[in-house]
Amino acid sequence: MTTLEPIPAGKFQAGDFKSDLKPIWCPGCGDFGVVTAITRALAAIGRPPHEIAFISGIGCSSRIPGYTNAYGFNTVHGRSLPIAQGIKLANPELLVLVASGDGDGFSIGGGHVPHVIRRNIDLTYIVMDNQIYGLTKGQLSPTSRRGRKTVSSSFGSLEEPVNPLLYVMGYGASFVAQGTPADMAGLARIIEEGIRFPGFAFINVQSPCVTYGDEEQQLKAQKTRMQSLESIGHDPTDPAKAIERAREYVTKLYTGILYRNPNPPPTYGQGVTERQEFLKKQAVPRHKILNRFMPDIPI
Amino acid sequence: MIIGIAGAGGDGVISAGESLITAAALEGYHGIMTKSFGSQIRGGEASCRLRLATQPVLNPNGPLDVAVVLNWEDFRRFGWELPVESATIVIYESNTGVAPDNLPLEGVTPTVVFSVPITAMAEKYAGTDKAKNIVVIGLLAGWFGIGRESMLEGIRKKFARKGAAVVEGNARAFQAGLEFAQAHPLEEDRKLTAPQSGREAKLLTDGNDMCAAAAIFAGCTFFAGYPITPSTEIMQFLDREIWKYGGTVLQAEDEIAGIGAVVGASFAGKKALTATSGPGMSLKTEMLGLASIAELPLVCVNVQRGGPSTGMPTKAEQSDLFQAAFSAHGDCLRPVLAPTSVGDMFGIIVEAFNLAEYYQTPVIVLSDQEISQRKEIVEPIDTSAFRVVERRRPTEAELAKYARFKLTESGISPISHPGMAGGNYLASGIEHNELGRPTASGEMHARMNEKRFRKFSPLQNRRDLFVVEGDPDAPIGLVSWGSVAGVAKEALRLARAEGLHAKLLVPKLLYPVAEQVYQDFFASVSRGLFIEQSFQGQLYRLVRMYVDLPALVKPFAKSGSNPIQPAEVLERLRKMVVALQGNRNHRQPDPVAD
Questions:
Q1: Which among B510, B34, B16, B12 is positioned nearest to B230, based on CA atoms?
Q2: pLDDT tens digits, residue range B9-58?
Q3: Interface contact A66-B438, CB threshold 8 A
Q4: Average pLDDT of every residue of chain B
Q5: Cα four-point dihedral sign A186, A189, A191, A197
Q6: Nearest chain A Cα to B425, which residue?
Q7: How far is CA A222 from CA A206, A208, A232, B70, B543, in A?
Q8: Domain A14-293 is of which CATH architecture?
């Protein structure tokens, strides 16, 4: 966020951003932890709830705006990014968060991702990646591993998974991070950093599905698997190194900031504001707009 | 007077037409110009038709009074769009090698034919064959008087920066055309008499530009869309203008993202527009459903072309009415409006934004390829006569216990937007209760559906969105909409001039069907026609879902790209009168019981 004021300490608590709606998620779902991390990050940011727009698509993860206190919009499957872009461009002052899942974000909605990246629209895109379709009860997702047996792949998946980290790096994303509710403090911190980043920020959250997920994806297993990028001395300003580590998406569970462009391109919103400022002198009053259709010379 | 010009790309066919209609606008004429091209992106054949008159021109159709042929092969490609009759004055390029008494036209032998060395004259006087269009303008000014006063001034201004030699060359080419015409006078003087009154500033534009300008007038500050023929010029105009008003244009990655961004901008509190054509409309429908259940205002313009699928992208058709009325799934109602001309587009777009904001709903505007791309001389529009409506926002008291989807008496609930303190709510495609919280309650779904339909009930009384012309108690009734309404109107006027007892209803609000308006109109009617440019006659069928029409009211429907001619409608009206008289006299069975 480029427009953030310095935070008055303690102005908001995480609880201020929680709604009183009871989640429909299965007990033990990773998404409970994601809500908590998001509300903690928002408290740290300190913007009041009415200046926040929280947009989602369809899926278990996309229920999240209902469980937070802000302006929420639970839209249609795969289209949270276009809608969020419209909101941000219409009112650049808003803090815009987008929640999605692996199916919503990288299958039905995958086509929108490159475009939000190349426009560098200043929003934070949190994908809860559980490698399965939970809401429709256990089908293959675009991030399911090859060979995975599900109700829609009785004999095992014949596809390689989409690699969300490599996908967004490939399109030139300037802020790429990964977290898990198994490391709540770390997750809240990268969400906060993503919100503060001036431009499009992508956060992949390895949020386990307790009902249809593999054993090795559960929080318990994650706690032993996960490896903090900071602890291994990863330099988040090095894009080649970030891509190298992104390639290990299937085998390793890195947490933290994978890539942060030290010289990010201008945001789309900045360009819009500059253009509006530059051109506003040329506006004829709206009620005289038709004068431009008065015929001039005939040739 | 109807003038048709055709030639190869680069012959200056379109620029000649545009010069003529601009001169006509400046001289106080009424007129419409349509353009038609081969499917090539550059080059290929091009044609235009100009219909000019001292009275308002209702449609561009009809056989040619004057045909200008720069190339016979290209001219013949536009056969049915440029119909030649024996009375048509034919002016053609001599170097085509065709003999005046042996024109390559089938089944018709025009009597007045001029073979003119157009290219040779351009080369001789202007030093380049690029001045062919200037020679053509000179010829038409000479024979028909259009632009005699203003063309030379136009040439001087346009070519001024190219130097005196170019100005003089083009002026000589124009003069040469003029003099050729004077040296070969018509037996009968066909010069148009320039109107004495009404010479004050008329407007000259096409439907797409008018649509975009009207959106700005209505307070639209957000457009997102995807290029698609024949709607793209709406985005292009707004991209040149909307920033000046603090607005934004987003060329989206696809049609879905286009309307998605518009839904988002509307949620954020802005008036927002998207525009497309049939295939794009198909992609947008899920978002229309979302905007309907989330009760978000937006305007979606569909510039109709021939369908289904890619169909006929550069030709007009009225075959997307069913799609507009029934676009997204679920029980839902979205108002559908249709302008009848370029001039009418202004008020329809303003109305569309007003309905969208007032009823918190997507509104679909059905334009068509003809209106969108035809150049029309438009009477001046007094913008102060148009009201601009804003969405109903919550008051302080309402915010104190805010319920976004409150079940009010009118069905309209005050709408907040992000940034408004105290107005936080969850918008959703999921069915919700008054607070916006997801629900699976059948009772709540029924109440919300009822609210979302009830709020539109005042639309049944919007008689100002219907035009009725003719004898109120006539037994013959016509109904027509969109660009075809101009054809029906001309047919009605011709019929009434013959003493036929008929009337016409032009709905600009197509959906919801205003049942009482149709019932009142058809109360005196025993025979009639729905005149439509679609194979099925979609308005006829849509109205019949809601209104019991007299049995002998039928569709007169043609697939797109087959212009309906006022003369053929008139012929049907005459037959209906004969049949009515026959029935009255108990003489013979009905000859047109179809």
A1: B34
A2: 888 999 999 999 999 998 889 999 999 887 676 678 899 999 999 899 99
A3: yes
A4: 94
A5: negative
A6: A71
A7: 9, 9, 17, 77, 62
A8: 3-Layer(aba) Sandwich (3.40)
Instruction: Name the token pair of B128.
Output: 């380049």
- Examine the predicted complex and report whether its ipTM is higher than 0.85: yes
Is residue B585 over pLDDT 90?
A: no
The alpha carbon of residue B378 is apart from the nearest alpha carbon of chain A, in Å, by 9
SS3 B44: coil
CB B513 within 8 A of CB B547: yes
B267–A73: do the CB atoms touch at under 8 Å?
yes
A90: nearest CB among B265, B294, B421:
B265
Contacts of B147 in chain A (CB under 8 A): 298
DSSP string of B384-434, one letter each residue: GG-------PPPHHHHHT--TT---SSS------TTSTT---EEESS-B-T
Which of A17, A76, A83 is the mutation pick for testing B, counting most B CBs within 10 A?
A83
Residues in B touching A16 (Cβ below 8 Å): none
Please give the pLDDT value at position A8: 57
Task: Say yes or no to pLDDT of A280 above 80.
Answer: yes
Report the pLDDT value the prediction gives residue B150, as an integer from 0 to 100: 85
pLDDT at B551 over 70: yes
Q: Can you read off the two tokens belonging to residue A33?
A: 């932890």
- State whether residue B119 is helix, strand or coil: helix
B247 is written with which tokens? 């607005």
B198 pLDDT tier (thresholds 50, 70, 90):
low
Q: What is the rounded CA–CA span in Å between residue B103 and residue B110? A: 9
**Would you kindly state where each structural domain of chain A is located, as residue ranges?**
14-293
Distance, CA of A149 to CA of A155 (rounded, Å): 6
Average pLDDT over residues A176-195: 98
On whether any CB of chain A is under 8 Å from the CB of B263, the answer is yes
Given 3-state DSSP classes, what are the helix, strand and coil percentages for chain A, each rounded to the nearest 5? 40, 15, 45
Nearest to residue B438, comparing CAs of A259, A273, A197, A63?
A63
Q: Residue B176: is its pLDDT beyond 70?
A: yes
Instruction: Give me the residue label for tokens 């021939």.
Output: B306
Structural domains present in chain B? 2-183 (3.40.920.10), 207-385 (3.40.50.970), 392-455 (no CATH), 462-585 (3.40.50.920)
Task: Give contacts of A 112-151 with B, CB under 8 A.
Answer: 112, 114-115
pLDDT band, very low/low/confident/very high, at A3 (cuts 50, 70, 90): very low
* Residue B528, strand partner residues: B477, B553
| Dist CA A221 CA A296 (whole Å) | 75
State the pLDDT at residue B342: 98
Pairing of strands B552-557, A95-101: unpaired
Span B211-256, pLDDT tens digits: 999 999 999 999 999 999 999 999 999 999 999 999 999 999 999 9
Cα(B480)–Cα(B537) distance, rounded to whole angstroms? 10
How far, in Å, CA of B288 to CA of B291, rounded? 5
Tokens of B27: 């001289």
Residue type, A190: I
Distance of alpha carbon A170 from the chain centroid: 16
Q: Is B488 helix (H, G, I), strand (E, B) or coil?
A: helix
Cβ distance A87 to B267 less than 8 Å, yes or no, reads: yes
Distance CA B131, CA B144 (A): 20
Q: Under a CB-based contact definition with an 8 Å cutoff, are residues B326 and B511 in contact? A: no
Least confident of B141-155, B177-191, B404-418: B141-155
Residues in B closer than 8 angstroms to A91, CB to CB, are 268-270, 417-419
Compare all CA atoms of chain A with the CA of B221 and give the residue at the minimum distance. Answer: A90
Q: What pLDDT is recorded for position B157?
A: 87
CB–CB contact B201 A55 (8 Å) = no
Read off the amino acid at residue B326. Answer: F
